[in-house]
Design brief:
Strand order of the largest sheet: 3-2-1-4-7-5-8
Protein name: Undecaprenyl-phosphate mannosyltransferase
Enzyme class: transferase
CATH architecture: Alpha-Beta Complex
Strand content: 15-25%
Number of domains: 1
Structural class: alpha/beta
GO molecular function, one term: undecaprenyl-phosphate mannosyltransferase activity
Pfam families: Glycos_transf_2
Family: Belongs to the glycosyltransferase 2 family.
CATH class: Alpha Beta
Bound molecules: guanosine-5'-diphosphate, magnesium ion
Number of helices: 8
């Protein structure tokens, strides 16, 4: 089974080499696609240098503008389908998602269509996030569950394994949201299509190096985006 981990990056020069090495140190054979939005800090140059060492396992796609993590993932998903990958993962570059959990997500996906590395399926498993961010994320998940009726605890999770049929059927060109909203939209569309979604508990750790790209615009988009998704599903225009 061909497995691809997609890592979106914007200014991750402090993390990118370590995260790539950590994935390739795993016993199972994962390939990586880094989708970089022309980071001014030269993240892509570090990846190019590493490609000499990891040759055909490490792929890089550079986009010309910073256009949000959602668009970067859609780009990566299309590439993965074209390259015939069977299992496609989403993972952040900043070690908030522990690469050692990838095999656990993969194993769970052998009995599901989509697996979510979940912070909130058993209590709250978040380490070193400022209290404000924990509360925001936790209640955002509740809000989404309530409005959309999604039976998922961590609706904004960004540590995910998709089997290829989910990405084939979901209609990637219909996915409109770019920030956290993107994570919600992917889960909602998969749920509406009737795919089997499983949550496995993971521990999410705040980044140590580099800076978060979270901002108010992303929250705004997600709040309105959720209402818009609800509306579209009510009028059957999803
Ligand atoms: N390609 C791309 N990657 C992004 C963009 N925004 C964030 N990322 C990456 O997405 C991941 C999660 O972003 P992060 O800033 O850690 O968000 P936070 O964990 O919610 O604070 C990291 O790997 C970022 O480098 C973007 O606009 N384009
Ligand atoms: Mg982060």
């Amino acid at each position: 089974m061909k497995k691809l981990v997609i890592i979106p990056t914007y200014n991750e020069k402090e993390n990118i080499e370590n995260i790539i090495s950590a994935v390739f140190a795993l016993e199972k054979d994962f390939h990586i696609l880094v989708v970089d939005d022309s980071s001014p800090d030269g993240t892509a140059d570090i990846v190019r240098k590493l490609q000499k060492k990891f040759s055909h396992h490490l792929h890089l796609s550079v986009r010309h503008v910073k256009d949000g993590l959602g668009k970067a993932y859609i780009h990566g998903f299309k590439w993965a389908l074209q390259e015939r990958y069977d299992y496609i993962f989403e993972m952040d570059a900043d070690f908030s998602h522990n690469p050692n959990d990838l095999p656990k997500l993969y194993d769970a996906c052998l009995n599901a269509d989509m697996v979510i590395g979940s912070r909130y399926s058993k209590g709250v498993n978040v380490v070193n996030w400022p209290m404000g961010r924990v509360l925001l994320s936790y209640f955002a998940s509740k809000y989404v569950r309530f409005i959309l009726g999604l039976p998922i605890h961590d609706t904004t999770a960004g540590f995910v394994c998709f089997s290829r049929k989910v990405l084939e059927d979901i209609g990637l060109d219909n996915v409109k949201l770019k920030g956290y909203g993107f994570q919600i939209e992917m889960k909602f569309r998969a749920f509406k299509k009737g795919f089997k979604i499983v949550e496995v508990p993971i521990i999410f750790t705040n980044r140590i190096l580099g800076e978060s790209k979270m901002n108010g615009g992303i929250i705004h988009e997600a709040v309105l985006g959720v209402l818009n998704l609800k509306w579209k599903s009510l009028i059957n225009k999803l």
